[in-house]
Specification:
126 residues, single chain, 6 helices, mainly alpha
């Protein structure tokens, strides 16, 4: 979502309840990584049928089998696959950074070699 969303021509026509609902639906989809799919029961938990119809009429929701599609969700948000990929990259980078830091602290700074340390092994073969 951009900081211009509240002033968008489609948005200014929404009631307060519909505005709150669409924000809640986007949060739900992002948190559970549904790629913009919103089950009907979840839609009903956060908005009245009138507000849901309002969002459909305004073009924010499209009714599909079993629920709703959040219009252009993947155009503006990362997909579940992209989020997972970024998460794995961060996890790997953090793990490697931590082990390199330990190598520098316990081996390089103390001028010690460890057979179990990949960085010591790499330094020996370099």
């Amino acid at each position: 979502m951009t900081d211009t969303f509240p002033e968008h021509p489609k948005t200014v026509q929404l009631s307060d309840g519909a505005f709150r609902a669409i924000i809640t639906y986007w949060c739900y989809s992002h948190k559970l990584r549904t790629d913009g799919f919103l089950p009907k029961n979840v839609a009903k938990m956060h908005a009245t049928p009138t507000r849901i119809r309002e969002l459909v009429s305004a073009g924010f929701l499209t009714e599909i089998d079993g629920g709703y599609d959040l219009h252009d969700y993947l155009k503006h948000q990362w997909s579940a696959k992209e989020i997972e990929s970024m998460s794995q990259k961060k996890k790997t980078a953090g793990s490697q950074g931590g082990s390199l830091g330990m190598h520098k602290r316990w081996h390089v700074a103390r001028d010690r070699f460890s057979d179990d340390c990949q960085y010591c092994q790499e330094a020996r073969t370099a």
